[in-house]
Design brief:
It is a single chain. 0% of the residues lie in helices and 67% in strands. It is built from no helices and 8 strands. By secondary structure, it is mostly beta strands. Strands 1, 2, 3, 4, 5, 6, 7 and 8 form an 8-stranded mixed sheet that branches. The N and C termini lie far apart (31 Å). It has one domain: F0F1 ATP synthase delta/epsilon subunit, N-terminal (ATP Synthase, domain 1, Sandwich).
Amino acid sequence: MKELELKLISAEKSLFEGKVAYVMLPGTEGNFSIHPNHAPLISSLKAGEIEYGTSENADDVKKVSVNSGFVEILKNVVTVCIE
């Protein structure tokens, strides 16, 4: 199974770094999901929840509330900078 490397960071600290199966994000133009082999992308985020599922257990879903931020997707690495 292909995986993504998720890096979830704020100005103060790293909140999560690890392998995930998918990431759902609150984009300023609407919610969207990222899966392995996604095209390169940079997008702004609005207030909402980031949801991600770990690859070890498809039922293991985590959620993080955000006020705003940015995401970069490049070569199966998803870097999310949040407030």
